[in-house]
Amino acid sequence: MDTRFRTILLFGAPGSGKGTQGKILGQVPGFFHLSCGDVFRALRPESELGRTFLQYSSHGKLVPDDLTVRLWQAHARRLVDAGEFSPEHEVLVLDGIPRNVSQAELMREHIDVKQLIHLETHDQETMIARLNRRALHENRLDVTNEAVIRRRFDEYERETAPVLRYYSRDLIFTVDAGQGPMDVLKHIVAQVATTAI
Fold it and tell me: For residue 11, what is the domain's CATH number?
């Protein structure tokens, strides 16, 4: 039996709606949503992995790919052990990981990617405006700086976009993220419903 999690990846540039769509899909019976941000927020600072993570994050350094995947894997296993996520009955919906090709390689032994939903953005300015609105709504004043947001787009193009070439084209389904959230969701649900998972 395959011990890898059956997985749908939600993929897209900052502001494309990965988190929003993931949360909604995670409410549908048979799906379990997990974002990489949730993994980092759930870390216990006193644990070995938590201390290692803090050594990097507190100095403003990127967490190495192998540590990121280890953190994710340990968190996912805790969810399984606690009975919160049932891999036999639920498909894992991931957003925010893998962030680059190295992470995609490292995660191959943990996930069986059944579908990659690419939330494609054509208008960066619209996405920047969306991120600014969200930051103000969530009181995240640290990400209202436009230079920071533009740097995130540059990082996405350089580091994350190549992940699309890593996975087989027949696993990738593209949705226009510039539509309203309900229209985006409608396309995602229609695609997921036709995929043998």
Answer: 3.40.50.300
Q: With b meaning 16 or more CB within 10 Å and e meaning fewer, what string describes 49-78? A: eeebbeeeeeeeeebebeebbbbbbebbee
Number of domains forming the structure of the chain: 1
Is 76 in contact with 34 (CB distance < 8 Å)? Answer: yes
Question: Which neighbouring-strand residues pair with 8?
Answer: 93, 115
Per-residue confidence band for 135, with pLDDT thresholds at 50, 70 and 90: low
Range of the domain at 56: 5-194
**What 3-state DSSP class applies to 193?**
helix
- 139-195 per-position pLDDT tens digit: 655 555 677 778 888 888 899 999 999 999 999 999 999 888 899 999 999 998 877
